[in-house]
User: Fold these one by one.
Assistant:
Number 1:
Amino acid sequence: MIRRLGAFCCASILSAAIAVGQPAEPLRPEWCRQLPRPEYGKLERVLSDEPWFEIYRIRPGVFAIYEPKQFEEVISYLILGEKRAVLFDTGLGVGRISTTVARLTSLPVTVINSHTHFDHVGGNAEFQEIWNRDLPYTQQNMRGQPNVYSRDALAPERLCGPLPPGTKPESYSIRRWKSTHALQDGERVDLGGRELEVIYSPGHTPDSLALLDHKNGLLFTGDTFYPGPIYLFTPETDFAAYAQSVARLAALAPQIQLLLPAHNVPLAEPSYLRRLADAVQQVQSGKAKGQLVEGHQEYTFEGFSLLLAVKPPSSK
Ligand SMILES: [Zn+2]
């Protein structure tokens, strides 16, 4: 889940538009008006005829599959070796990501999920090989998400463009899927000429993990880091575990050239890891001052913020 707060517009914008007589322009939510993000202007776009996804070549053999028409702005990554490919997350399940992936590679594809929030597993059911941690939390999410939950993701204020033909918010749901291999911390996945190391990074969810491509200095961070408000307020978040995971990733920073986050933009400087670790420490020690935003406590730092649950008043 994500990612940009203060985004919800709509009543005030709508009334303003009517007041100045602009009914002809379709209403676009505030976050959508800010797209495209400038970072994308410098990237190499491929398969620009895809209707739902935008696809960018970030490095040789590394594609970002971005969903800019939905508020989450989720990003999945296709990582190619010489013999196999890994798809790190499968997005919202709105566009058919397996068809898009088949246009990018003919290699056999294994899905690895950064974690199993609905916006990262939406296309899992389209694939045979799906690797995850084996936790009760993960198993629960394998059952899919009923429409009553997922349809909110496609509410008008969360969309920034047309849905693919045939996709309807009333029937959108996350299909059931099955993990075919339990990943271990430190496990190395050999793609042929490229190796990915699995790094457990619990916190945002119990089953969060990052992928490290040592040779190329790439760290795929999932939702443990992205430039934006990082969601750390849901019941499945464990902030103490998150702090440990962030410290572990920050220690890797000297080996890393590029972070590839799962929302908003597909590249960030590795220096963010150290700054994120500092930020988490400041929150833990009580040094950072938060503010109440939309029912959550937001701690703002340069380039990102941490969005925590508001603690209930302690009873004496
Ligand atoms: Zn998430």
Number 2:
Amino acid sequence: MARNATNKLLQKAKKLKSDEFYTQLSDIANELQYYKEHFQGKVVYCNCDDPKNSNFFNYFVLNFKKLGLKKLITACYKEQTNDLFDTKETEHAFFYEYSGTENGYLNQADFVYFKGDGDFRSPESIELLKQADIVVTNPPFSLFREYVAQLMKYGKKFLIIGNINAITYKEIFKLIKENKVWLGINLGRGISGFIVPDHYELYGTETRIDDAGKRIVSPNNCLWLTNLETSQRHEDIVLTKTYAGNETEYPRYDNYDGINVNKTQDIPYDYAGYMGVPITFLHKFNPDQFEIIRFRKGNDGKDLSINGKCPYFRILIKNKRI
Ligand SMILES: C[S@@+](CC[C@H](N)C(=O)[O-])C[C@H]1O[C@@H](n2cnc3c(N)ncnc32)[C@H](O)[C@@H]1O
């Protein structure tokens, strides 16, 4: 096979690896507990979920009454192969609607087959999206930007899992800065791990087999992203440090009128100007307390630097209360 083609295949395999992370019920329940009041009388759509194996589907069926849901729609994507030599019978994409009547029983006879592949961007899936109030899932990481853009386009409420890196995507950061989207409660080690298929190669220390024999990887680099309100995000970060008298601890940037702060808990409570903080700040960010100004770059369009050296990526913020 030509080298280029091999590379392409390898890249595709790498990309698809994290697309095959399946979410554990415990991690879903751990996060969803903070949003219960949003679901009363609502239609939930899980648009990247096979109800035969999705714990998002399981969670909403199990909690259908408790949450007071109106309807749960779950849509399963099936990649359509055009390979002439593929002998597998092509599986069909479908969706399944649950209204709390049949005791959670998943009856194959009630599957509605899509004409297409059930891609979340397909007109058929978008029609279902339009009916939904809240979208909750773990979408394919490789399509994360597009996925969020579509939710914003259709003005949907959502709670989804993504990679922590997504914060640094220009499009996603812009939404966070504009206070249209924010981080959920759990992130990193707060999401205990994902179920992976049998063909997934387990390596490293962050892997295990659970009591039920499921293969689990814990990448510790994921987060929940949402536009559903929680009271937690309006809690102030407790600030105990002063700038006055400790100026040397907070060096100024070469290319921006602001000071560098290495840890969120070290943000001084008495500094009125711009401050560069690590991206993990966003996990504690309260929009009533701070304003996000910009990401990473100084006035010259280059990464923020101190005496010519760049600390890790910084988010520039300002205290709203002083
Ligand atoms: C990271 S996995 C998560 C699966 C499930 N949501 C869960 O959390 O267990 C992403 C899923 O998205 C599906 N998928 C991939 N591309 C898709 C697309 N274009 N449209 C809809 N679903 C897609 C994959 O088949 C895979 O099941």
Number 3:
Amino acid sequence: MSRGKRPKWMIDIAIERMDILFSRAEMEFITHPERSNRYVELALKLSTKYNTKVPDKWARRYCRNCKSFLKLGRNCTVRLVNGEVNIFCGECGHVMKIPYHKEQKNKRRAKYESRQKGNDE
Ligand SMILES: [Zn+2]
């Protein structure tokens, strides 16, 4: 397989597989947290390989820094600070800052987002 853009059906399959992996990570987290981290790792590999994003519903469920699966009330804390969702990773102490309601507020956020450089992906 050459580099570059993948056909849509292939990306769809990759997304489906990432969804399955994250669902399993969620299911097994309580009993086998180390497996959860392995599932995250596999899902992120798919994401890189198929050059596609982690599904939105899971994008906040792992640490961007140490790649641990995050479960609210277990190993992460979520707070709303100045209109941003701050996700604190209990494994490595990394804080991910995610603009709150970023789609709805796009129009009046130009100024705000210029301060947020490089926080995405
Ligand atoms: Zn972390």
